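Task card 7
Instruction: Convert sequence to structure tokens.
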Amino acid sequence: MQALYAYFKHDGKSSLKKAEQELFFSIEKTFDLYHYLLLLPIDIANYAESRIEIAKIKKIPLYDDLHPNTKFMDNRIISQLRINRGLLRYLENKKLSWVKYPELIKGLYTETQVSLCYKEYMSNETSSYEADKSFICTWYKDVVAQYESLYQNLEEQSIYWNDEPEFIIGIIIKTIKKFMESDGDSSELLPLYKSHEDEEYARKLLHKVVLNHKEYQVYIEKYSKNWDFDRIAFLDIILMQMAIAEGIEFSSIPTKVTLNEYLELAKYYSTTKSNLFINGILDKIFSYLKEQNQIKKQGRGLIGEI
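Output:
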């Protein structure tokens, strides 16, 4: 979506090859962010440990200074991330580190300390692998995802990380939920692509929208007669063109899946009413394309579906 938006905003003056290069570079940057944010709990735990060590050498240490609660630092998920071979290898190869941003780590640690999930976790005397996993997932959702300074920091580091953090945090939570204690240093992280077909899907979708966007635009204009086409949000047009391309070109993807995916994108990236508008227009376009036999679904349970 972002690659197509950039391409058409420049009136299609850049080459398709350049647009494709931009697409795959942005995907790689998103994969960088996935690993970068997986590093966060490790650095937060390291910072917590440093604070404990400083407290121990006070001139007049308190009881809690000498007998600290190390449950957060000893969290089993964090321990697994510390030794995860895939994560460590990727971070080393890409030279990803939070070392230049100590204030962000400090601020996120402070937010962690005052959060309800942290207080409940630290006060609970029972300890288990599943409880540790549940806390880390909740921490990402309730603390990391809500920390505005993180978004500002990431946006300053890379223009490709402007809209990605929330999505990536959701993917990280799904990743961690699959961790098992027996995994040791081999807990499975997501690959860049699930398969070669996924990579080809991205390339083909980009190409088809660029090459056929005028045809798709005719469909949109035809079924939005009660709307001033020039006033339709540009991003809505991009999303509808992508949905049409997917509906026509990818026979194994159910039409309902296509509709749902692009409606979710509209909710997140476009205006508050875009999803309703897009749903109405695409429903009419897909019905027409089915009548014209341009949408053909193959595979078990897919023939003739819309």
